Amino acid sequence: MGAFVISKRFNDEYKFVFTSRKGKVIFTSLSYELKFECEEEIEKFKGSIESAKFLKFKSSGGKYFFKLVFNDNHFATSRKYTTELLLQKGIKEIVTYGAKAEILDFSVDDFVFED
Hints:
This is YegP family protein. The protein is α+β, with helices and mostly antiparallel strands.
């Protein structure tokens, strides 16, 4: 099953990724100022995944990707795929496992570093 993984960006904002069952990143969210905003957005998404829209694009380099639109807002952008079939498999993974996916938190504030 896939997982939502929360982490901190270099600018101290938070983001999350959705990873496949094999651990590959499928999409990366927008930035959030506070960690609880990530958690809330993930829960909203999991509860209403059927209303998500996947807008498909092809980059100038010939790679395929999608933008995930949720509640009429850009929610996340996928990784780049080499084929349209792989892109479709990524979308299927979200639709199939997204509602049941666990949330993992790897943001730096939760770790204690000792000297």
